[in-house]
Amino acid sequence: MTAPLTGARLRERRLVLGLRQADLAQEAGISASYLNLIEHGRRNVTAEVLARLAAALGVETEALTGASSGALAEELRAAAGAFPEATAEIARLDDFASRFPGWAALVAALHGRAATLERAVAALNDRLGHDPHLSAALHELLSALSGVRATSAILVETEDLSPDWQRRFHLNLHKDSERLADGAGALVAYLDRSATAPEAGIAAPQDELEAWLSVRGWHLPEVETGNLAAVQAAVQTIGSAAARQLAEAHLARVAADAVALPLGPFSAALAELGPDPARLAARFSAGVLSVMRRIALMPGAEAGLVLCDASGTLLFRKPARGFTLPRFAAACPLWPLFSALARPGMAVQALLDTPPPAGARFHALAFCEAELPFGFQGPDLRTAAMLILPAPGVPGPALPVGSTCRICPRDACPARREISILGTVVERGFDSGANSV
């Protein structure tokens, strides 16, 4: 009835507290010899005795049985996988977690914090490089500063300016100085809002929509029950009118997908066929992109999803944990998406490896659908989608990807455009089968 590690956990906890076997045995109402056999895994222990031992040690019973250590073990295993050069003893992971739960929790927490910080750096890099509000504010500051400098140079270097021209230049200098001060104040206020309340510093209506969906877990349960009025009322809480319009369009698509792909039958088919958008689309006579949206936006779904139009503009982003999606379309994680965009109606799939130290493997499935709203004489409107599925332990050649070159540590990448600010890592090189995209 008792796992061998239960005794080891019990012994470690007793030693930490400085208790003798006799003292703990007396407190729990058992003999010291029986406790000795339990600690060495030679004797089973009833639930009642285990509860008394846990109470005497001041811990929950689960802390001794390890019933709550599954998630911790997974986090530790992920941390070890992120730093393979450390050669952590994976086979003794359960022993470490049970004997030193505090240190194990600390290692897991530091690994999670490192991954969070890496994602934050990627997001900040993306924002600093592409945020339209920040770019416009900096442009305004530089323009005003150039005006002040040019006017000052004229006043200093021209000795025979008439009083009328001097007055004009002084007026220009005053106006440019006001522009500079106002622009600096606006930039500081914008950055302050972004730091203290991220939702107030969102750069675009699309970011507002995605933030709203993220808070709701990316799923709209009201749609499944037909209560559209409730979710439409929730849409009205979104800040800007443009974001609310995007939310209403998203709601209409989700409602249409729910009708074409009812949650109950679709969940059963997903369990039977697996996350293959083409097979599921054939089963329900639905579009492949509808199926991809349904897979990614189901309750508790771990899959990520990104959509773009023919210009390469990203229309929607739901990230998968550990897979950084850029806000703008200039990064290698989106290569399968663009490959599909160039080949409407053809399935594209690839295994992707994110960079170390927190590297992970993902299965990317991409597909492009084209519409002809103006008939054969008009242009085709293309929308491509890429479903991102976690694929830990899936064998086979993979395409190494990063986030953006500026913060990607892959030194040997032939597609690198600039040196990384985070340093580099040494890798064996690209897999021979990485060109499957």
Write the layout of secondary structure elements.
Elements: H1 4-16, H2 21-28, H3 32-39, H4 47-57, H5 61-65, H6 70-82, H7 93-99, H8 101-130, H9 132-157, H10 163-196, H11 205-215, H12 221-224, H13 228-235, H14 241-260, H15 263-273, H16 277-284, H17 288-296, E1 304-309, E2 314-318, H18 335-341, E3 348-353, E4 361-371, E5 381-390, E6 399-400
Parallel strand pairs: 3-6
Antiparallel strand pairs: 1-2, 1-5, 3-4, 4-5
Helix pairs in contact: 1-7, 2-3, 2-4, 6-8, 7-8, 9-10, 11-14, 13-14, 14-17, 15-16, 16-17
List keywords for this structure.
alpha+beta, extended, 437 residues, 434 Repressor (Amino-terminal Domain), 6-stranded mixed β-sheet, 53% helix, disordered C terminus
Shape: extended
Oligomer class: single chain
In N-to-C order, the SSE pattern is HHHHHHHHHHHHHHHHHEEHEEEE
Portion of residues in beta strands equals 5-15%
Overall average pLDDT: 80
What is the domain tally?
3
Strand order of the largest sheet: 2-1-5-4-3-6
Number of strands: 6
Structural class: alpha+beta
Q: Compute the number of helices.
A: 18
The end-to-end span amounts to 52 Å
Helical fraction equals 40-55%
Structural Rg: 30 Å
Major sheet characteristics: 6 strands, mixed
Q: Low-confidence stretches at least 5 residues in length (pLDDT < 50)?
A: 195-202, 424-437
Descriptive report:
- It is a single chain.
- The chain has helices at residues 4-16, 21-28, 32-39, 47-57, 61-65, 70-82, 93-99, 101-130, 132-157, 163-196, 205-215, 221-224, 228-235, 241-260, 263-273, 277-284, 288-296, 335-341; strands at 304-309, 314-318, 348-353, 361-371, 381-390, 399-400.
- It has a six-stranded mixed beta sheet with strand order 2-1-5-4-3-6, sandwiched between helices.
- It is α+β, with helices and mostly antiparallel strands.
- It has 18 helices and six strands.
- The protein is extended and about 105 Å long.
- The chain folds into three domains: 4-110, lambda repressor-like DNA-binding domains (434 Repressor (Amino-terminal Domain), Orthogonal Bundle); 132-201; 305-437, no CATH class.
- Mean pLDDT is 80; it is low at 195-202 and 424-437.
- Helix 2 packs across helix 3 (32-39), helix 7 (93-99) packs across helix 8 (101-130) and helix 16 crosses helix 17.
- Strand 3 and strand 4 (361-371) form a beta hairpin.
